[in-house]
Amino acid sequence: MEKRINIHNLEPQAYKAMLGLEAYLAKTDISKTIKELIKIRSSQINSCAYCINMHTKDALAHGETQQRIFLLSAWREAPDLFTDQEKTAIEVTEEVTLIHQHGLRSETYQKALQFFSESEIAQLVMAIVTINAWNRIAVSTNMPLED
């Protein structure tokens, strides 16, 4: 893979702004488990090896099971592994990540209201937007995998 720019070194203020979003997300009401599921699923969709690698390690360290991580991309075929709240968060993640297809559908939004407050839905959206931004940074700059 060709070596490309390092935004962190070239534009530290931009990186600092992204880290500000991460600081905000760390204080939200969304569970660490759901945050990691969001990060992994969005990174899978965006084919971001750097972020998949990082967030699967983080999820495992937080107590997530290998089975759930392995089956996250096929969560609809493994419904008993995920709670209804988690499945809804994953569905929101997919629709926001793939916003160009049909956006966040009304049906999905109404389902989210069953499990999350409006503020928590806003937090979910911000978590999804943030990991999508990180994915785009990592993929476009060919960030190498970390051991």
Give the termini distance in whole angstroms.
17 Å
Proportion in helices:
over 70%
Which CATH architecture is right?
Up-down Bundle
Q: How many individual helices?
A: 9
Indicate the low-confidence ranges by residue numbers: none
Give me the CATH superfamily. Answer: AhpD-like
CATH class: Mainly Alpha
Residue-averaged pLDDT, rounded?
A: 95
Number of strands: 0
At the fold tier of CATH, the topology name is AhpD-like
Shape: globular
Largest β-sheet summary: none
Gyration radius (Cα, Å) is 15 Å
Proportion of residues in β-strands: under 5%
* Number of separate domains: 1
Along the chain, the helix and strand elements come as HHHHHHHHH
Structural class: mainly alpha
Task: Explain what the structure shows.
70% of the residues lie in helices and 0% in strands. With 147 residues, the chain is mainly α. The chain has a single domain, classed as Up-down Bundle (AhpD-like), CATH 1.20.1290.10.
How is the secondary structure organized here?
Elements: H1 7-10, H2 12-26, H3 32-45, H4 49-61, H5 66-71, H6 84-97, H7 99-102, H8 106-115, H9 118-140
Helix pairs in contact: 2-9, 3-4, 3-6, 3-9, 6-8, 6-9
